[in-house]
Write a structure and sequence with these properties.
Diaminopimelate Epimerase, Chain A, domain 1, 4-stranded mixed sheet, 4 strands, 247 residues, alpha/beta, 8 helices
Amino acid sequence: MLLNIFIYLLAAFIAVTLVTTIVGSGGDVPSSSYNREPIHTGAGYDNNCIIDELGWFDNIGQTSRRLKAFYDETGVQPFIYLKGYDSSLSTDSQKTEFAEDWYEENIDDEGTFLFVYFAEPNQDEDVGFMAYVNGKQVSSVMDAEAVEIFWAYVDNNWYSDKSTDDMFVDIFNSTADRIMTKSTTGNDVAKTGLLVALVVVGAIGILVIMKTRRRHEAERNAETERILNADIHNSAGSGDDVLDKWS
């Protein structure tokens, strides 16, 4: 009985551990090492946060509204700029500099995370260069670790069958969900496993003690009853000569 209880508890722990590990790991997406707090810039959400020179988005207005979930969770304003091919921007450094200058000239707050995609001449076949620019107030949320997580979601989604609209919404919203909560690590799982093991061992120990105590009580009660119900005339001898004589 006790062994069965232990097996059931152990199986339940393994199942929970596997689910937690799979969900928390997020495939090849890096872990979030701490809980981030949303920023408060005082600026409301801007629905005009997509510029599409490539014609890739199906519904810019609707997608902009869906991106608000990223803002609600992080306090960071998302902005997506899909830039058409520009032959004057031939190097990665030139494109990065263009993104930084464009932010300074076109975004009047420091709470925006700008993503810029630079198309190649064959925009539908060749993947272009991608850059990002952080506003000065964004770094507490979109730090180096968070940006790495963002790029991982870009990699995971870029070649999917999703529409451009759904792809970017999933990239930003998945990033927000990931970076705002500390991911479950191997140490967390180990600590949980140790705690569960201690609880299981403790529970089994208590059950063993209780079972042993009940068995001893039953044995004492049986012995007492046997003594009280014993037939004095069937005894081999009482040890009293007078009583033995007249018996």
